[in-house]
Write a structure and sequence with these properties.
Length: about 475
């Protein structure tokens, strides 16, 4: 596949279409929605094959329905988002008839590099903003979900011309070539380590980049928290997709006098959600053996360094003898900073639980680490909640639950520092994939002369300078 030729074909088609009509943008969003709805069951089957088993309902909710909702939201709002914005002018320009506005125009061709953990939703969600802004798109799928990637390539031609949308598959070599293309914008979702390489590749072309990375998203359990509710919601978020979520709660910070209650609550919640795991269609497997081995190594490392590793296995099932990659929840008590589970993003059903005394200890612990993609606080103490929000920095926050801020279409979704740069979703996504073009209209009157900008400089110029230099 000639990636450069595909890019050039899309750019040529877009240049011929400019200005991109709103009707054409809505039509592309319509076709993307139909592509998801028409092939929903096939995508769920492909995802389950790629994972070794993935819950159909999870795939429907998190990949198919989530994509459709995002695309429908863009379709509903694109007319409003695309309106020019009038901007005020400083005195006396507005009074003299000058006018200023911002017009949003398509950037061109957007490259999307999608990950394996939600390979449908994280390909299609950026597409909502890309199409709403009037762009064309090339999407690189993950080699770790080959059946899903193949399905995208099989069906896309039924709904889109390659000059509008194309899917590209392949391994690391294709990924490197893709990220080095001179896109008009590039969005990558994946690991921080890979994000650094993407940024380097894009820099050679001065391609603007949105990086949606990960990191260790902390969950702070306040003393005022409803522990039954908090532990159930943490368990739901941690065990969804077997913890293979960039926003999964990565570690818990709990008051030292509530650790036993929190761990008990997690165990009870996990057992209620998944009484059995090996034969449970609702529970998803770890994506492949390499990641399964990686997670087991984290547990071995924690045990070797003095951690108390608790296996939450409600059905007393034989995971070791199952010849598969499903894993139960493992809770790691007494984690230390030198453990891999406290250094790497876990991306699996392993949850360290660390004690704190005063809330500022928990805040300081978070602040000594890289800025996370998500931060979660449970509690009903308004002053404490405000202190956590004011004294920490993260990509986003959910209060009294986990992950949910990503589902609010009009909240920007993005990281900060090692957890990412830039944001998308809703109007913020539309703006990310648009060029905000400044338009200034000068009246007939000689503004330069009135403002003292017109040589030869004299008294008018001196008065203008003196006026502006007053404090």
């Amino acid at each position: 596949m000639d990636l450069t030729a595909l890019l050039q074909a899309q750019r040529t088609a877009l240049d011929a279409e400019r200005p991109v009509p709103l009707a054409a943008r809505r039509d592309r969003l319509d076709r993307a929605i139909r592509m998801m709805i028409d092939n929903a069951e096939r995508f769920c089957s492909a995802l389950s094959e790629d994972f070794g088993h993935r819950s159909r309902e999870l795939s429907m909710l998190a990949d198919i329905v989530a994509s459709v909702r995002t695309l429908k939201h863009a379709r509903k709002n694109v007319d409003r988002w695309a309106r020019p914005e009038k901007r005020p002018l400083q005195f006396p320009l507005g009074l003299l008839g000058a006018r200023a506005a911002v017009e949003y125009q398509p950037k061109g061709v957007v490259g999307v590099i999608a990950p394996w953990n939600f390979p449908v939703q994280l390909a299609m969600a950026p597409l909502a903003g890309v199409f709403a802004a009037g762009n064309r798109a090339m999407i690189k799928t993950s080699e770790f979900t080959p059946r899903t990637a193949a399905l995208f390539e099989e069906i896309v031609g039924t709904y889109f011309d390659p000059a509008e949308l194309v899917f590209v598959s392949g391994g690391a070599e294709v990924g490197r070539a893709f990220s080095a293309l001179p896109f008009d914008h590039l969005i990558f979702t994946g690991a921080t380590s890979i994000g650094r390489h993407i940024l380097h590749a894009a820099a050679d072309n001065l391609t603007p980049v949105t990086l949606e990375l990960g990191g260790k998203s902390p969950t702070i359990i306040g003393r005022s928290a409803d522990l039954k509710q908090a532990t159930e919601r943490v368990a739901i978020g941690k065990l969804m997709n077997a913890g293979q979520i960039c926003l999964a709660p990565d570690y818990l910070l709990v008051p030292d006098d509530k650790e036993d209650a929190v761990i008990g609550g997690l165990r009870s919640a996990a057992a209620a959600l998944y009484p059995r795991m090996l034969g449970n269609a609702d529970y998803t497997a770890v994506v492949n053996e390499r990641h399964h081995v990686r997670l087991q190594a984290y547990l071995d490392d924690a045990r070797a360094k003095g951690g108390d590793v608790i296996e939450v296995n409600p059905g007393a099932e034989d995971f070791a003898g199952s010849n598969g990659t499903r894993m139960p929840l493992f809770i790691v008590r007494n984690p230390t900073d030198d453990m891999a589970v406290m250094q790497d993003e876990i991306f699996g059903p392993v949850l360290p639980v660390k004690r704190y005394g005063a809330i500022d200890e928990a805040i300081d612990f978070v602040n000594r680490r890289d800025r996370p993609l998500g931060l979660y606080y449970f509690g009903h103490d308004a002053a404490e909640e405000r202190r956590v929000l004011d004294r920490t920095i993260s990509g986003g926050v959910t209060v009294n639950d986990v992950i949910f801020h990503i589902s609010a279409e009009e909240l920007p979704f993005g990281g900060i520092g090692p957890s990412g740069m830039g944001a998308y979703h809703g109007f913020d996504g539309f703006k990310t994939f648009s060029h905000a073009r400044a338009i200034y209209r000068q009246p007939k009157i000689d503004i330069a002369k009135l403002a003292g900008f017109k040589p030869p400089y004299g008294a008018t110029t001196a008065k203008a300078i003196a006026r502006e230099l007053k404090a």
